[in-house]
Design brief:
By secondary structure, the protein is an alpha/beta fold. The chain contains twelve helices and 14 strands. Helix 2 runs parallel beside helix 8. Bound molecules: pyridoxal-5'-phosphate (PLP). The site of pyridoxal-5'-phosphate has 15 residues, from helix 3 and helix 4.
Length: 379
Amino acid sequence: MRDSAKPVPAPVLFNDLRISDPERRQEMDAAVQRVLDSGWFILGPELEAFETEFAAYQHRAIAVGVASGTDAIELALRAAGIGPGDEVITASHTAVPTVCAIERAGALPVLVDVDPLTGTVAPKAVAAAVTPRTTAILPVHLYGHPADMPALCQIAKQNRLLIIEDCAQAHGARINGQLVGTFGDLAAFSCYPTKNLGALGDAGVVVTDDYQWAERLRRLRNYGQSSRYVCEQRGVNSRLDELQAALLRVQLRRLDTDNRARRSLAEEYRRSLQGVVLPAEGFPDAEVQHVYHLFVVQHPLRDRLRERLEQLGVMTQIHYPVPVHLQPAYADLGYVRGDLPVTEKLCDRILSLPLYPGMSLETLDRVVAAIGRSMREAA
Ligand SMILES: *Cc1c(COP(=O)(O)O)cnc(C)c1O
């Protein structure tokens, strides 16, 4: 039944980061021009404005821009005084940088299992992992779904632990109306281009209500200097430059609109997909606003499904195929297969489908149709 006159459609890409909305593009052009005309490229007015605007969006006292999400986590830990001798509890089912950042701060990452429905750290596993050396919990709001903060805050309070939220995938997500990034003592965000709030390069930001920690963050990101050539502590170079800050101001104004677009595409997927396990939204006693950084389904024969979808012109990804506790680089942490069974099972079944704010319903329908076809063939 081959129709040679019919053109083969271009594959459905996993993501499309081109800035195609003309208004957004115009504002970005203007932002770039402003920076070019100012001749001020590092630690200037655009960064200050972005920090003020992001703090206001987050309902936190202070935001401090840094060079990446990984740095945001590391410097948030260091600003709070967490380092050598401290244990920090987090999920193994996360992007590796969550764990790199803990190690770079000098602390020991303690990796625990996740909730089978949401894929975020399981409060019971966290409580069981607390030792006298534990100083902080580092929950990850994975895929745009909040971790169970009410339960985690309870555990932190009982054990006098700090909470540093990894919000890299969840700008704008909420629990019972409350934004993620407002539950912990500090919260770290990545503005890597694919994230819900994406720069056109690397960027990150930390929010907190503590002025002393914020002051320390500002020193840490700039060689540890409190003023020019006065070094109060040992720092790094991790600054959010003026160009990225100016571009992020444009993106921040559209964050809620972009998240609504993600949520409505997710709704459409939920209505039309069949044969795969849909992502969870919410946990007991809490209403959750998922911001769908990723739309992750599950299937027992994930690899076969992924391969067939690729043949049908639909690109997918896996976040993440190998959990941190089984990565070769982290073998010395001493975990073995079987230690975190929920995480390990999830990693074998998860599949991230294309979803980005500018994705059309026609494109989404092609994904749905390809999955439907794969299911019928397998039946
Ligand atoms: C992206 C990401 C990071 C790291 O952010 P970078 O800006 O790439 O350094 C950390 N944690 C999670 C969960 C992420 O998704």
